[in-house]
Amino acid sequence: KLAHPVPQDYSGLRVVVSAGPTREYLDPVRFISNPSSGKMGFAVAEAARDRGAAVTLVTGPVNLPDPAGMVVERIETALELRDAVLKAAADADVIVMTAAVADYRAAEAKTEKEAKTAGEVSVHLVPNPDILAELGRSKGRRVLVGFAMETHAGIERAAAKAARKNADFILLNYPTREGTAFGGDDNQVTLVRPDGSHDAWPRLSKREVGERLLSAALPLVSSDE
Ligand code: CTP
Ligand code: CA
């Protein structure tokens, strides 16, 4: 039992959250992926649920159980993520893309495992669709939030990304901070808008980052039905 009643400020709103990595298979037993833990996306989804939203969580493979009280869809590839998110996003109010979508997939995934050879091999990769940009192209009244991890020129790059993808804001973080980002329980992010204006938040639990994200997104939801 919670000690304080949680304000139900997301009651009546639909929130879609993507989380975790994608896997892009080279053959049935090998894939390209990344170390995303899914914790950030799960925290956003749980915060939205507790504030009264109807939540769909679309997640890549992560070591986290299905949270109660929401629709959870487990996917592996970026193409599967795209299908699930676009379907859920059709009638959503707020869409939060925390998923670490692999930028490329194999042009042709082999259907059988290949034995190694002595020589070098190369893999032909093709770009995956940009799901956030696709949502942005038919944005309508939906609020779109992205995440970006940058190693340098973070504000400029995140603002350019938000503008290019027609996102309302992007939460920027850096891979180098201990205990934050990949796998950690905390995150230190800067909210970056398409015009380059930004607000740095202190280091917070991922849950608290999720709460602040939802509070920043809520005034952008248009009240007219
Ligand atoms: N994203 C997406 N579809 C992709 C790639 C990224 O929806 N194929 C989303 C991510 O979920 C994230 C945001 O876009 O919310 C920014 O991701 P990022 O990888 O930083 O953007 P990219 O455009 O892929 O840029 P980069 O070349 O820096 O990887
Ligand atoms: Ca990328």
From TrEMBL:
Any single GO BP term: coenzyme A biosynthetic process
Cofactor dependence is on: Mg(2+); FMN
Q: In which pathway does it act?
A: Cofactor biosynthesis; coenzyme A biosynthesis; CoA from (R)-pantothenate: step 2/5; Cofactor biosynthesis; coenzyme A biosynthesis; CoA from (R)-pantothenate: step 3/5
Query: Where is the DNA/pantothenate metabolism flavoprotein C-terminal domain positioned along the sequence?
Result: 11-216
Q: Does the keyword Flavoprotein apply?
A: yes
Show the GO cellular component annotation of the record: phosphopantothenoylcysteine decarboxylase complex
Q: Which GO terms describe its molecular function?
A: FMN binding; metal ion binding; phosphopantothenate--cysteine ligase activity; phosphopantothenoylcysteine decarboxylase activity
Q: Which reaction does it catalyse?
A: N-[(R)-4-phosphopantothenoyl]-L-cysteine + H(+) = (R)-4'-phosphopantetheine + CO2; (R)-4'-phosphopantothenate + L-cysteine + CTP = N-[(R)-4-phosphopantothenoyl]-L-cysteine + CMP + diphosphate + H(+)
Protein name (Swiss-Prot/TrEMBL): Coenzyme A biosynthesis bifunctional protein CoaBC
Protein's organism: Deinococcus ruber
